[in-house]
Amino acid sequence: MILKSIHKVFFFRVLSATIVSVGFGLHVSAGVRLVVNVSDAVTKEPLEFTAVTFSQLSADGVSGGHTDADGSITLAAHPGQAVIELSLVGYKPQRRSLSLKERDSLTLKFRLEPSNSLSEVVVTAREGYNATSASLIDTTAMRHLQTSSFTDLIGLLPGGVTKDPEMNTVNRIDLRTATGVSPGDDYATSALGTAFVVDGVRMNTDADMQTTPDANRSARISTGKGVDMRSLSTDDIESVEIVRGIPSVEYGELTSGLVNIRRKSGAGRLEARFKADTQSQLFYVGKGFDLSGDDSWVVNAGVDYLDSKIDPRDRRENFKRVTGSLRSVKRWNGPPARVTWNSSLSYSGAETRTSSPLRIPRDSESLCHVRLKGLYPCGEGAGYAGGIVSAAIDGERSAAAVADELRRTE
């Protein structure tokens, strides 16, 4: 009996081992072991955290993972066609097609090439190699920026910052300005000392020195601050040279720098541009005409319109600009010399509402309503009575006259 029991136990153990070995053999025959090693193509070092994606038509879904510290990963696959993809930040991705056979064990080695270069680089400003620091900006840069005024071009200068247009305040240029100098400081003369030259003609701002700015509106007017760059459109400009420092003596009086603007000249097709953003809409149309047929007499014309609404609730925060330019270039090519006659007619008009948002109608009935109700819509604005008398006078009546009118209506 004991011997028979031993034979039975031995038989069942041999049978179980046989079944397990057969099952294991079937599993091996149905699967493929795939080992992937990834390394750097230059340094030959293993690449950790490489994303590996493995897909097969004969299997459902996509498998994969990330390589370990040795740059290795092991995948389970099935016989048939497969595709493996590798990607890692800073390296070019790779993709390879595979044909897996039964009882196949593969070790794939991938070498990823570094990809540290950008696909495209666009230079929008060029640095001049002169005695002074100068930057050259052409139409390519303006086309990339989609400018609303000349202020947007200042962001291309070294140290410049690109920001949203501020059309409700004076846009002045600041070249070689010390840090910490506020706009109201007596030493904030960078904009006043910067000369703007358009086609060889200097923009004269000396008339601004003959008036005294109103303290309540100093941020909105350009008195004593040089050229307000909001009034300059960029659509007619061919190139701009900005010199930070003192240029040649031919440009005359300046202390901070030079902005040399050269406008488009020559026959060409009709150009039009429309721009709309959250605060403004701009439209431009321009064309160059060859009146002689041989480029000896060329006329260029352009019109620009900008409507900026900083705050739709307050019309006094709006800014509108209309610019027009008509330029003529006439050349005579004679035997003794070549003569060129340049003439231009330009117009730039800007409408900005700088009155106080509080305003008093000029009739005693409205003044009485202001005194009684405390809050009364006055013309285009509204305000509390406490600040109306001192801050909302429109220039036709003084505070004393308003006080007399209030006493008379009591």
From TrEMBL:
InterPro entries: CarboxyPept-like_regulatory, FAD-binding_protein, FAD/NAD-bd_sf, Plug_dom, Plug_dom_sf. Residues 132-255 form the TonB-dependent receptor plug domain. This is TonB-dependent receptor plug domain-containing protein.
